[in-house]
Every structure is written in C-alpha cells, then in structure tokens.
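Q: Got a minute? One more chain.
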Amino acid sequence: MSRRGLAAVAILILWVAGLGFLVRREVFRPDTERFAELGLRVNPGATYYAVMREGRHIGFASTTIDTTETGIQIVDYLVADLPTGDRTHRATARTRIRLSRAMRVRDFHVQIEAEQGPVTATGEMDGDSVIIVVVQTDAAAPADTQRVPVTGPVLLPTMIPLAVALEKHPAVGETHHVPVFDPVARALKSATVRIAAESLFVIHDSSTYNAAAGRWEALLPDTVRAWQLVHGDTGTVAGWVDAQGRLVRGTQLGLTLERMPYELAFENWQSGKRDRADPAGPDDEDILESTAIAAGVRADRALDEMRVTLRGVDLVGFDLASERQSVRGDTVYVVREGRAAMTPQYRLGGIMRSIEDHSARVAMRKHLQAEPLVEAMDPDIRDVAARLRRGERDPRIVAERIHRWVRDSLAKRPTFGVPSARAVLVARAGDANEHTQLYVALARAASLPARVAAGLMHLDGKFYYHAWPEIYLGDWVAVDPTLDQFPADAAHLRFVVGGLDRQAELLRLMGTLDIDVLEAR
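A: Always. Here it is, folded:
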C-alpha cells in the first residue's frame, strides 16, 4: 500500500501524538481533585530520543519537565530530516506548556515548521472557564483568535502519557479517560487509553566517546519496566511508557522514537549527517511512499465501478459507507455517481430551507463554516469565490467553476507541510491535500457545502494515499480537482471524512492493510 500523502500532516500528528501517542477522544467531565493530586507526583527531568527510520538515525526528540513550588513547565521538541522523493525536508515541532501545580493549564505555545512555513497555536486561560486560542498559519495574514469555553481543568495532548502513568500504578487491563484540549482543532475532547501489556526494556543511562570510531557508545544498561498504551476503542498500539509517564519506545508514521542518552540521540545524529554526502538521494524511499502526484502516475481511464476486499485492519471507526460506497463484510463496492446524483436538489443560499430536520441542519451548517486550515471567511478566499460564482445559484455550475479554477491554478507537485487553504492560495502549488483544502474553502465561501475526504486511490495496479473534496448537491458527491475528475471515479476508496484529526486515523492502515481488487471497470 502506498503512503506518501500523509506526510502533509505527519509533523502535526507527531506533536498531537505526544511523541508517539495517538488516541481517540470522547466528551468527558474532568475531576479537579484528581488533577491536583497528579500534579504533586510530577518530577522534573529531561528525556532524549533518537528518531529512527528503518534503522537509520534521522532526527532527535526530547521532553523536559521543570517544576517549582507554584508551577510546572513541559517542553516537547522534535526535529527530523524527512526524505520525500528526491529531497529531504527539515521538519520541527515544539510545544511549551505551563501549568499550575494542580495541573491546570495556564498557557501554551505550539509551533510546527515544515516546507510550507510555520504553523503556530498559542493559548492562555482567561479565568477558569475560557481558553483564548490564537492560530497563525500565514505570517502575512491576520491570526485567527477564538474564545473556547471549557469546564474544569484540561490537559494538552502531549501530556496524556504522563496523566495515565501518574494517576496510579499502571496495571494491565485498566482504561483511563483524560480530558484533552486540542489547540489546533480548538476543541475540548477526551482521550480513552487502555493499558494492554507490560514488559521490560533495556535502556542505557550514560555514554562514552569512541575516538577511533568518531561516535558515542552506550554505557551502563538499566532495566526499565514499561506499559503498552493503546487506543481505547480500536486497540491500535500507541507506544510504551514507564511508571513516570515517559516514553520508552514508540512508532508512528514509519518513525521510531527510542529513548537513549543525549549524546547517542543528538550527537550521533549530527555526526552521521556530516558523514553522509547525500543524506537522501533520489533512490531513498519516501517516508510515506508516494501520492499519485509524487509518483508521476495518471489515470489512463476513469473507473465506473470497483470492488475490493480489505483485510488485516479493524475497519471500525472508518467512514467507509457512503452514497457511492457500500460495505458487505470485508468487501467494499464503489460506484461512480451518475446523472441523477449530479442534479442539484436546491439553490445556493437556500440549502438550510431545504432541510426540515433540525439536527440535519446543524450538521450541514458546519460544512458551510470556516475551520482551522479551511479559512472560508478569509477575504482573499471570499473574493475568489465571489468572482467564480458571479451570482450563479446552481450548485453544480458553481462546483464545476471552482473545480476548473483549482485544477488550472495550482501547480501539481508533492509538498511537505500542514496545508492551509489561505497558504495554498498564495503558494499556488501542492498535491492532493492542498488542492482539496483550497477547494473546500472556496466552495464554503460560495455557500456550497463541502468537506474533505481521504483514503486510497487505485492507479496503475497500486494504491496511493489521496484526498479529495465532497460537495453536497442533494447527496454527497465526490469530485477531484487534483486529477481533473468531476465527479471522481470509482478508483477513489474513501476511509475518512474530516480534517487532520480524522485523517490521522489513516495511520492505522500503514503496513497492515491488505487489499485485493476483485473488479475494476
């Protein structure tokens, strides 16, 4: 299975995962006294990690905890040289969180830097019930500020392992619920984490320099007991932590984080870079394999129907069923939309009046609003949308105009970063993620309900990571400005609908999904 396309969200996910911990979230009411007790158990210290890929040392990560009588500060940092095709991209993620000793968040600062520039999110508590969050995705544009109500104390995602381990002595079979505030999605959620296993790891506490080899070598091995954390709902392995909540070993996105002394984690990475004249030449495999764009493949024909079997992965939680996809056991049938599905059932500006059910109207409204990285209310995006719509009220006609404009206006090239619609409008380049983010933002600005879909694309006998928009014409219809398909053909196998938090679910497929194509015509 091909996997390159998720590189656009890899660094953000690594941060959200808390150096290797991805968890599912549910609504939860926190216990104030419990958090205050946890805060008293937090110990200061620094932990270092080598970032590895297929046995190759490509980066460095660290977690530092400082404590005072009145507060706690946690700083997580990751830097890695990530190969994508014939290039290597330096990517960094840094999170600083300041808390009271009762584990109440006072403020935080998150910064992710990749090819398309930095994304920052800062937050500060206003009293006990509101977090003021500022997200900046484009230095040339105004920051997006929101006041988010919260109930009781909350944690940031990187703090989940700490809270799970310190609540009480870890025991296999326990399930923990931790209230979490996601600063990028700007939402209060909760993490459900289960302790699935217990094991011993050999960790080196110190190192010595081998002058002959020009490298640091490990000394004084120590045995550390660690517990395996998994997603509470899916059973997907998240990583191993010790009794202090510190990561011992974790794997995400094809990267492995291994705890070791600073000299081994950082100095050996730096010396290894100097020793390599070409750290990631053209023959170096992508960190997440190729999207269709990166691989340079194009559909030689549009498929009207496709039937596949999916094995090796628990499919619970994926958005496989849709108007164009039906699921029977482990078999998925995909049928391209016909003439009837492409005939609009409403006029632009009147979508809410056409929906009688209140809950359905509420659900539809979110597909017309701005959200993080889909800046539908940005003045420049609204201006382009207005020029494309030109007063037209037929949803299909407007959808096709946006389709053609995005198709013709963006250079097709693989990118690495966190795609923001506003940044894509300026850069005018990208792969499927960038095309999709901009399309959805323009559609919403034109009063056309739209959402992001992501999954796999079948091309030339292989499957590639891909993203594409879905628009609402009466039913949800898939379109693909990246590959110039309106509607998108049946080679598009959808797994999730939504933003970065939903697209992170695709990581469950990596290296485990087995796909057999039974029919493609």
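A: The chain is about 20% helix and 40% strand.
Q: Perfect, thanks.
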